[in-house]
Specification:
The structure holds two protein chains of two kinds.
Chain A: E1 11-22, E2 25-37, E3 42-46, H1 53-61, E4 69-78, E5 81-82, H2 88-94, E6 99-102, H3 106-109, H4 116-128, H5 132-145, H6 151-154, H7 164-176, E7 182-186, H8 194-211, E8 214-219, H9 222-228, E9 231-236, E10 239-245, H10 246-251, H11 256-263, H12 307-311, E11 317-320, E12 323-325, H13 328-333
Parallel strand pairs in A: 3-8, 3-9, 6-7, 7-8
Antiparallel strand pairs in A: 1-2, 1-4, 4-5, 9-10, 10-12, 11-12
Helix pairs in contact in A: 4-5, 4-7, 5-7, 7-8
Chain B: E1 3-16, E2 26-39, E3 43-47, H1 54-61, E4 69-74, H2 84-90, E5 94-97, H3 111-122, H4 127-140, H5 157-169, E6 175-179, H6 187-204, E7 207-212, H7 215-221, E8 224-229, E9 232-238, H8 239-244, H9 249-257, H10 263-268, E10 309-312, E11 315-317, H11 329-337
Parallel strand pairs in B: 3-7, 3-8, 5-6, 6-7
Antiparallel strand pairs in B: 1-2, 1-4, 8-9, 9-11, 10-11
Classes of the chains: A alpha/beta, B alpha/beta.
């Protein structure tokens, strides 16, 4: 497999727009998303529900439901090839092979009437043209590599016979069976217990170190971001609020929304203060996308909003080394 | 200290259908002999993974599932032995907030009617007083009184949970059972609801039984915390000592598994790994129920059930390997690995 030069992104999104027709008019579900993913890195996408993180994943996979949705602009480049312009046949060859995805709920993403071995084997037969026996062997090998005990016997079992953690391991085995260059993990551990989540995170890191797969981790949990990600994109209402290396985002967040996301969660600490101070709140809720005005989408909930925020949407601008934020406060400081 | 709620040797077993006519009787041991007390005005947390029995405990306290054995008392009132009219009358003293604000509100009722219903059912106050009380409750939980006329689907998740809280407050209960009240909400909304629960506790002197799988939330909300594993309490203590120095290897593993948003702490963290999944609660293993996943288990852990014993004042643990100073096996291993200390 020809590896790209490390500096060259394996996947690049440029100014991607996705619109949905709704009864209240056109909703801009994604409004100019742009980021790059380097080979072997983990990019975290974080935000509240409805901010467009899952839609970003669907756009990359070519799975935006059309209609009512449509890709209104931009480019999604996989090693320079624009996935938005290629035909359905090429896209089928990319999906599950070069880019694959694991979902939040492993039970509903596995087919209940096929054994897990058959489901993994199907992927490699379709994409890599292996014969039945070789595909079967590959499936068992993948189950072994994701840490499923007695993989040969387990391959003959059905999804309902496995625990939630085991099912997610099967999903990972299936996603990685074709050695994709990009793995999109959409809230992969939200349905799992915390000790099992830790096992899955360890597994993803270990497999990534071995195969060099780049991971896009979609989550609402800043803890998971800190644990897994190299770089972070913070999304709000279909736009990128902030983007940067994980250290910058967690320790020097420059967008009030990022600051709020970090501060509003009660973090586990070894020395809990005897007095409990009220948690920082982000007031209000995410606005409906059809109700977004001309200004910054976060302005109505932002404690630091001023006139310009309501009048004009801030562009995403550099605020530090590889660190960008879409907030007028930073422009004001001249950073 | 007088306890508002005391639970003694509570067991909840759900019988399963026999496999065949002469098959053995089997049961899910959801809660298997737990005891705890909650002082008035306190928040008592139960934390554990799925299948640990924390939600079943909540439902048993509310008398919403049949209790197999044991006693539950609210003050002097023997809740677990009440029935019929006496139980209905007792229900106004304890209420519950559910996890899912979507399925726990009747979609055909207006928000005001949902909050009013408990008062109607229990005949609290005159109809005019109830109307005034509903408006007051809406203000208490941060909703506008005119929103009473809306249906549940017209509210956001956080607002729906506020309606659920207003409904729980309607009968002026002493104890509110909060069963994962923020798990279904977005992180930014979680903070709003947690702050609201704290404020209501202060204003109305409420006592909470707080069930959650989120250790950060439990640490923030609770005065005392019990850690459950497969139907049993494995460790119980106040929020400071439990989180500072967990004694049970399971508690330590659970705390270590939580990813922290603090990068420095994440790097320094020594992970105590837990392998595999919890065993089935249908035929729980003999001995310590955590033994099969415990990195420190000894032969006797697999045969002998560890007793929940008080190691320090207010701090109880059920593990053979915790010594009398409250040092667990994970801590001894850690100290042995770093001789310089």
């Amino acid at each position: 497999m020809a590896e790209a030069v490390p500096s060259e992104p394996v996947l690049q999104l440029q100014d991607v727009h996705v619109e949905f027709d709704t009864r209240d008019g056109v909703a801009h579900v994604l409004d100019g998303i742009g980021f790059a993913l380097a080979p072997g890195e983990t990019l975290g996408i974080v935000g509240e529900s409805g901010c467009g993180k899952s839609m970003t994943a669907l756009a990359i996979m070519g799975l935006v439901p059309m209609p009512p949705g449509r890709i209104a602009g931009g480019r999604i480049l996989l090693r320079g090839e624009d996935l938005l312009t290629v035909g359905a046949k090429r896209l089928r060859a990319v999906r599950g092979n070069e880019i694959s995805m694991i979902f939040q709920e492993p039970m509903t993403s596995l087919n209940p009437v096929f054994t897990i071995g058959d489901q993994i084997a199907e992927t490699v037969r379709v994409h890599q043209g292996l014969d039945r026996a070789a595909a079967r062997a590959r499936a068992v090998e993948m189950l072994q590599s994701v840490g499923i005990p007695a993989p040969a016997a387990r391959a003959g079992e059905y999804p309902h016979q496995l625990s939630g953690g085991m099912r997610q391991r099967v999903m990972i085995a299936m996603a990685l069976a074709c050695q994709p260059s990009v793995l999109i993990a959409d809230e992969p551990t939200t349905a799992l217990d915390v000790t099992v989540q830790a096992q899955i995170f360890d597994l993803l890191k270990e497999l990534q170190a071995r195969t060099g797969t780049a991971i896009i981790l979609i989550t609402h949990d800043m803890g998971a971001i800190a644990e897994m990600a190299d770089r972070v994109v913070v999304m709000y209402a279909g736009r990128q609020a902030e983007e940067g290396p994980v250290v910058e985002i967690l320790e020097r967040p420059r967008h009030p929304y990022t600051q709020g996301l970090i501060a509003c969660v009660p973090h586990l600490t070894a020395e809990p203060p005897p007095e409990r101070l009220p948690l920082t709140e982000i007031p209000g809720v995410v606005p409906p996308l059809s109700a977004l005005g001309r200004g910054c989408a976060f302005a109505p909930r932002c404690p630091q909003a001023f006139d310009r925020c309501l009048a004009e949407a801030p562009p995403i601008l550099p605020v530090g080394p590889q660190h960008r934020a879409a907030c007028w406060l930073n422009a004001q400081e001249g950073a | 200290m007088t306890a508002l709620l005391s639970v003694r040797d509570l067991k909840v077993h759900f019988p399963l259908p026999r496999r065949g006519l002469f098959g053995p009787r089997r049961a899910v041991h959801a809660v298997d002999g737990i005891s705890f007390e909650i002082a008035r005005g306190e928040t008592f947390g139960i934390v554990g993974e799925s299948g640990s029995g924390k939600s079943t405990t909540a439902l048993a306290v509310m008398r919403l599932v049949p209790i197999t054995a044991g006693n539950v008392a609210l003050g002097e009132l023997p809740l677990s032995s009440l029935g019929g009219h006496a139980l209905r009358a007792a229900r106004r003293r304890l209420q519950i907030i559910f996890q899912d604000p979507y399925s726990s509100l009747n979609p055909r009722f207006r928000a005001g009617a949902i909050v009013r219903e408990p008062m109607d059912l229990m005949g609290i106050g005159s109809p005019a007083e109830r109307t005034a009380r509903v408006a007051e409750l809406f203000r208490n939980v941060g909703l506008r009184p005119e929103q009473q006329a809306l249906f549940p689907h017209q509210f956001s998740g956080g607002q729906r949970q506020r309606i659920g809280i207003a409904r729980a407050l309607a009968t002026q209960p002493e104890l509110i059972v909060c069963d994962e009240p923020v798990s279904a909400l977005d992180v930014a909304i979680q903070a709003q609801i947690l702050n609201l629960l704290q404020r209501l506790q202060r204003d109305f002197g409420l006592t909470y039984l707080f069930i959650s799988h989120d250790l950060g939330v439990v640490q923030y909300m609770c005065d005392h915390v019990a850690v459950m594993y497969l139907g049993c309490i494995v460790e119980q203590g106040d929020r400071v000592s439990l989180f500072r120095q967990p004694m049970h290897p399971y508690t330590a593993a659970l705390l270590a598994a939580v990813p922290s948003a603090d990068l420095a702490k994440n790097r320094a963290r020594r992970r105590i790994k837990v392998t595999g999944d919890p065993p089935s609660p249908i035929d729980p293993p003999p001995g310590c129920r955590f033994a099969g996943r415990c990195a420190f288990a000894e032969p006797r852990c697999h045969t002998e059930v560890p007793r929940l014993r008080e190691v320090r004042p207010g701090h109880r643990v059920a593990c053979h390997l915790v010594d009398d100073a409250g040092i667990g096996p994970h801590l001894r291993a850690e100290r042995a690995a770093v001789p310089a200390g």
